[in-house]
User: What shape does this take?
Amino acid sequence: MTTLYLIPTPISGNALHTIPPYVQEITRNLDVFITERAKTARHFIKSLEPAKRLQEMIFAELADNQDSNEAEKVFLDAVRAGKDVGLLSEAGCPGVADPGAAIVALAHREGVRVAPLTGPSSLLMALMASGMNGQSFAFHGYLPPKRPELARDLRRLENLSRQNGQTQLFIETPYRSQMVLEVALETLQSGTMFGVAQDLTGAAEFICSLPIRDWNKLKKKELEKLPAVFMVFVPK
Assistant: This one.
């Protein structure tokens, strides 16, 4: 039975050690991949010393802003030829905060076995390290990039947390991390918990989860331009 393997990738550079050996072994023996970004996928697979040369492998991109027809065709051609396929996110677990869910849904419709493999997830790792509610939480992807709209959405997440007791998670592009922090400190109420988890598993890893009042007491409130997960929680 053909299988679609959901392959986690490192969420920080030089963190191949976060990918379990059994995942590396499965991946190095595949030769058809659906990826969020082919260049990143090739770099990761090359680091595994695969059984075949990269030039002999097939890579089809499936990005948020692209038509999925090509990736779907590559997937269907492979499984109908009896080949297993690997699905890779840009970083972390495929199908979570990335476009890979479309291929997973197609695999289920086609009767292809779906095998999620163990690996790092920045969302779960950030939540684990937050001290916030890990029993009930919601992920919102990206918030608006401009300050007024961002402030409005942060207040919305704060209200959701207050009403439902949930931790609210979101992400942002690295170069806007500092702006997100500044708007959060200006907008959220003093007792609201705000968490930042940057460069998880990387050399510059930074995790801080404090009430707004305590964030405002910190002498240095500057974030690096690194991937980050942000969290909002209103304690009872």
Summary: Residues 147-164 form the longest helix (18 residues). The chain has a mean pLDDT of 94.
